[in-house]
UniProtKB/TrEMBL annotation:
Start and end residues of each Glycoside-hydrolase family GH114 TIM-barrel domain: 5-77
Keywords for the protein's UniProt record, in alphabetical order: Signal
Organism: Monoraphidium neglectum
UniProt xrefs under Pfam families: Glyco_hydro_114
Record's signal peptide: 1-21
Name of the protein in its database record: Glycoside-hydrolase family GH114 TIM-barrel domain-containing protein
InterPro entries found in the cross-reference section: Aldolase_TIM, GH114_TIM-barrel
Length: 80
């Protein structure tokens, strides 16, 4: 069982479960999820949604890409 000892927890969007955030809330805490919006990370569950053009020859994403913006919106919505 999760026991909250702080008021606010900054946790990774993909490395934590709904049970973790529910446990934080149940103990009076607040969970803030973070993710990297400007880099391509091939280990993330949504990495297959990016095209090669979205991260040409680097880990940096091309934020001009409508595909990149769409994927980031899905992360905000947690709906991918």
């Amino acid at each position: 069982m999760w026991v909250a000892t702080a008021s606010v927890y900054v946790i990774d969007l993909f490395l934590n479960s709904a049970a973790t955030t529910a446990g934080i809330a149940a103990n009076g805490g607040y969970a803030v999820c973070h993710f990297n919006a400007g880099t391509y990370e091939d280990w993330q569950p949504d990495s297959g949604l990016f095209t090669a053009a979205d991260h040409p020859a680097s880990a940096w994403l091309d934020i001009r890409s409508s595909n990149v913006r769409s994927i980031m919106q899905k992360k905000f919505d947690a709906s991918f």
